[in-house]
Specification:
Layout (H helix, E strand, L loop, with lengths): L1 H6 L4 E5 L6 E9 L3 H8 E2 L9 E7 L2 E11 L10 E8 L1 H13 L2 E3 L4 H8 L5 H11 L4 H11 L3 H25 L9 H30 L1 E6 L6 H9 L17 E7 L2 E7 L9 H15 L3 E7 L6 H16 L3 E7 L17 E4 L8 H11 L2 H6 L6 H22 L4 H19 L6 H9 L6
Helix pairs in contact: 5-6, 7-8, 7-15, 8-14, 14-15
Length: about 450
C-alpha cells in the first residue's frame, strides 16, 4: 500500500474529514496540484479569496448540490504543504457522497488512510513523531493523555529532546573524527569530557525508556486489585468505591468466583478496580479456579488493596506472620494498602502498630466510614510529578528504537573504558544515532514501518 503512496504523490486526493453519517456540518478536503482547479470548476462565487472564508454553492453541471463554505490554502501554507481546499457542507449523506463524486469526476481520487498526514510528513510540515502524536491526540481519552499528545504535536517537546541526544552523539563523533584526522598535530582528546557526554546520553535515553511505563499507566490506567480472605468485605468495598452495585454481596463464603471490574477517575487518571475471589483453602473446584484467577490478576496489578475482617484479627502476631508470607510470595514489589474492615463491629485499635511497613486504613465499607482515606491514599500514589513534568514515550515503536540505541551506547561506553581504539568503536555511536533518527523519521527507508504508522489513521486525516 505504501508504495502506492509514493507513486501517487502527484495525484490530487479527497476525503471526508469528519465522521461518516448524518450531521449538521461535514468537512471535505482536497489536496494536491489540481485542488484549486477542481474547486473553481464546481464552486460558484463571483470572486474567490485565498486563506479566507468563501460562501457559495457547489454545483454539478446545472444542478445545485449545496450551499457551502470553502477555504483555499495555497502551498506551502497548508496542513499537507500542498494546495489544499476545505469544503464545509451540510452533513447529509447524499450531499457528502455527491460532492466527493463530483471531485473525483473532475480529476481527484479518494485518499487512503492517513494520506493527508503522510503528505504533511513528506513535505516536512511535521516529523514522524508529530504525525504519530496526531493519531494519539485523536484517540486521547483523558486530559493527561491529551496534554502529552499536545506537547509532542504543538510544542514538539519529544522531538526536541531526541534532537538533543542526537546532537550530543554527533558532538562525540565529531570530536573523535577530528582527533583521528589530525593525529599528527598532537591533538589531545579530553577523555573525561567524552565520558561525561556518554553518561548524559545514556541517562537521557534511560529516562525516555522508563517514561514508557508511566505512559502505559496514563493510557490504560492504574490496575488495582482488591484481595483478601473470604467474607472480609471486598465486594462491599468495591461497590462503595465505584459507587455502583456491581459485585454480588453475600454472607456465604466464596460468593465472588470470577473477577469483577469497575472504574473510578482520580486527578484525570483512570483507576481500574478488580474485585477478586476470596483467598482460602477450599475443596470446591469452581472456587479454586476463582482463587487461581486472583493470583494471576495480582501479576497485572499496580496496587493491592488487601482487605481483612478486623473481627477475625484475634492473634496479631499470627496476622503479622501471614502478611510477611504474602509480602514474600505474592505481594513482592507491589504497592500494598492494608484495609481493616468492619470497625463498626469492633473496638480493636491497631493504628499504632506497624505491620511489615505497610499502611493500614481502618474502615467500615458497610457504613461507608474511612472511604475518603482510601481515595486520599490512591491520590497520593498517582505519579503526578512524572506525568506533569516529564516528556513521554507513548509508542511501542519509539520504545523499541530507544532500547536499540541504548544497547549501542552501552557497548560504546564499555569499549571506551577498555581503551579499544576509537576507529573500532565509533560504529556503535553511529548505530545508536541511526535508531534515534528512525524515531523522528529521518533516514527511514523501511516502507513497512511507515505503512504501519499511517494505515492506522482514518481516511481524511
Amino acid at each position: 500500500m505504501l508504495n502506492n503512496y509514493y507513486i501517487s504523490r502527484k495525484d490530487t486526493i479527497t476525503a471526508i474529514s469528519t465522521p461518516l453519517g448524518t450531521g449538521a456540518i461535514s468537512i471535505i478536503r482536497i489536496s494536491g496540484k489540481k485542488s484549486i482547479k477542481i474547486i473553481k470548476k464546481i464552486f460558484y462565487k463571483k470572486k474567490i479569496k485565498y486563506n479566507k472564508v468563501n460562501i457559495g454553492i457547489i454545483y454539478d453541471k446545472k444542478e445545485i448540490i449545496d450551499q457551502v463554505i470553502i477555504i483555499i490554502y495555497k502551498k506551502p501554507n497548508s496542513y499537507t504543504g500542498e494546495n489544499l481546499v476545505e469544503i464545509n457542507c451540510h452533513g447529509s449523506n447524499y450531499i457528502q457522497k455527491k460532492i466527493i463524486n463530483i471531485i473525483i469526476k473532475n480529476g481527484g481520487r479518494l485518499a487512503k488512510n492517513g494520506e493527508f498526514t503522510f503528505r504533511a510528513f513528506l513535505n516536512k510540515k511535521i516529523d514522524l513523531l508529530q504525525a504519530e502524536s496526531i493519531y494519539d491526540l485523536i484517540n486521547s481519552e483523558n486530559k493527561i493523555y491529551h496534554d502529552i499528545a499536545i506537547n509532542n504535536l504543538i510544542y514538539n517537546k519529544l522531538s526536541k529532546n531526541i534532537l538533543k541526544i542526537q546532537n550530543s552523539i554527533l558532538d562525540i563523533l565529531s570530536y573523535i573524527e577530528i582527533s583521528l584526522d589530525f593525529s599528527e598535530e598532537d591533538i589531545t582528546i579530553d577523555k573525561k569530557k567524552i565520558y561525561n557526554k556518554i553518561i548524559y546520553i545514556e541517562n537521557k535515553i534511560k529516562n525516555l525508556i522508563e517514561s514508557y511505563n508511566i505512559n502505559n499507566i496514563i493510557k490504560e490506567g492504574l490496575n488495582i486489585s482488591i484481595i483478601g480472605p473470604v467474607n472480609s468485605g471486598k465486594s462491599t468495598l468495591m461497590n462503595v468505591l465505584i459507587k455502583e452495585d456491581k459485585s454480588i454481596i453475600s454472607n456465604i463464603p466464596g460468593t465472588t468466583r470470577d473477577i469483577v471490574e469497575g472504574k473510578i477517575i482520580i486527578d484525570n487518571l483512570n483507576l481500574n478496580l478488580f474485585d477478586t475471589a476470596g483467598i482460602r483453602k477450599t475443596n470446591s473446584k469452581i472456587e479454586k479456579i476463582g482463587i487461581k484467577k486472583t493470583f494471576k490478576k495480582i501479576n497485572d496489578t499496580n496496587i493491592i488493596l488487601y482487605v481483612f475482617d478486623i473481627l477475625k484479627l484475634k492473634n496479631y502476631l499470627k496476622f503479622k506472620e501471614k502478611i510477611k508470607y504474602l509480602k514474600k510470595k505474592i505481594f513482592k514489589k507491589k504497592k500494598v494498602l492494608l484495609i481493616a474492615n468492619k470497625i463498626d463491629k469492633n473496638n480493636i485499635n491497631l493504628k499504632k502498630k506497624k505491620i511489615i511497613n505497610y499502611n493500614i486504613i481502618f474502615i467500615s465499607a458497610k457504613k461507608k466510614k474511612g472511604i475518603k482515606k482510601i481515595y486520599k491514599y490512591l491520590y497520593k500514589i498517582i505519579p503526578k510529578k512524572q506525568i506533569r513534568n516529564n516528556i513521554f514515550i507513548n509508542n511501542l515503536r519509539h520504545y523499541e528504537e530507544l532500547k536499540k540505541s541504548l544497547k549501542y551506547i552501552k557497548k560504546f561506553k564499555k569499549d571506551y573504558l577498555n581503551k579499544i581504539p576509537y576507529e573500532f568503536i565509533t560504529i556503535d555511536l553511529k548505530l545508536s544515532l541511526k535508531h534515534l533518527y528512525y524515531i523522528n523519521g529521518y533516514n527511514l527507508t523501511s516502507n513497512e514501518i511507515l505503512e504501519n504508522i499511517f494505515s492506522k489513521f482514518c481516511i481524511g486525516k
